[in-house]
Amino acid sequence: MTTKTRTAITIESTVQAPVAKVWDYWNKPEHITHWAFASDDWHAPKAENDLRTGGKFSTTMAAKDGSFSFEFGGEYTDVKEHKLIEYTMGDGRKVSVLFTTVEDATKVVETFEAEDENPVEMQREGWQTILNNFKKYTESH
Q1: Is 2 part of any domain?
Q2: Exposed, middle or buried: residue 106 (CB in 10 Å: 0-12, 13-18, 19+)?
Q3: Could you tell me the CATH number of the domain that includes residue 18?
Q4: Which has the closest alpha carbon to 8: 90, 72, 93?
Q5: How far, in Å, CA of 60 to CA of 53, rounded?
Q6: How do residues 35-48 score in pLDDT, each as one tens digit?
Q7: For 113, which of 6, 46, 62, 133 could close a Cys bridge (C-beta 3.0–4.6 Å)?
């Protein structure tokens, strides 16, 4: 059996908010539904999150016109409050999210394994757009 080596993609953003707020807005379903989508014609109508090692999460991402939706989810493999979240997505790809305090802000660095269907740059742009939505939402609320 051969193990496939996946391309790791890293994105980041510095959010002008303390780490406790950034952590809550990243993880609480009532906030996730306000930022977990890549364009204004999409939304996240439902989110569930059991934030603990072994816990599962799921976010519904859907086109606002009802034409398409999908579940983005997985299982947590490591959770260190205000510092680290690692999880495995439903398709087996791994994701790591680091939270680091930088002066009065929080740097969020997310690394994920690329899938095989779409170009790496397209995946990077999509995930970065969602992270930018997170930053904008967190800083404005």
Answers
A1: no
A2: buried
A3: 3.30.530.20
A4: 93
A5: 21
A6: 999 999 999 999 99
A7: 6
Domain of 93 in residue numbering reads as 8-140
H helices present in the chain, as ranges? 19-27, 29-32, 120-140
Q: Is residue 98 part of a domain?
A: yes
Cα–Cα distance for residue pair 17/46, rounded to 1 Å: 25
Domain annotation covers residue 71:
yes
Cα dist from 35 to 8, 54, 115, 138, whole Å: 23, 24, 22, 9
Integer Cα distance of 133 and 135 in angstroms: 5
Which H/E stretch holds residue 61? strand 56-63
Residue 3 located in a structural domain: no
pLDDT digits (tens, 9 = 90+) for 78-135: 999 999 999 999 999 999 999 999 999 999 999 999 999 999 999 999 999 999 999 9
> What is the Cα–Cα distance from 10 to 136, expressed in whole angstroms?
19
